[in-house]
Amino acid sequence: MSAKAAVEVHCLFCRIVDGTFAASKVFEDDSILAIMDVRPVSRGHVLVLPKEHYVALSDLPLTLFIQLASLAHTLAANLSTAFPDAEGLNILMSEGPAASQSVFHSHLHLVPRTTDDSMVLSSDDPVAERDELDAAAARWRQYLDVGGQPEHDRAADPSAGGQA
């Protein structure tokens, strides 16, 4: 058995995809699947995943990620009709143990929210210093095409040749 096949045998989502484990399906086509989370944070908590096994977002082919995002968009657009009590929506992707990923098969969580639910995403964190934010932005930019930088940043960035 190949290493990939061994992983897929033990992957809960791969078992759902191949039909050996039951799931409440919301949507399915040749490449993606949406299922209800068996441990929902709220009513309507759905998972959107590729059928092929990928562990991390960076492993996904861009076209496949776009398909996942498109389905998430469609589900979000219909949230208030499907779940009239929902007042908002979180779309999350946890990658790695430090981010609380528990099934190591890349997937999006769509979590309908109400003001009195128990999920906590705090906005009480301290505001970062501008120099810290600028340094972090520069670290990200080094991996992007310079053409993708905001115009005002390109003029101040010597690596961009100072051209706006």
TrEMBL record:
BP GO terms, sorted: nucleotide metabolic process
InterPro entries membership: Histidine_triad_HIT, HIT-like, HIT-like_sf
Signal peptide range in chain numbering: none
GO MF entries: catalytic activity
Annotated region (Disordered), positions in chain: 145-164
Motif range (Histidine triad motif): 105-109
Active-site residues (renumbered): 107 (tele-amp-histidine intermediate)
Residues of the HIT domain: 12-120
Protein name: Histidine triad (HIT) family protein
Biological source species: Agreia bicolorata
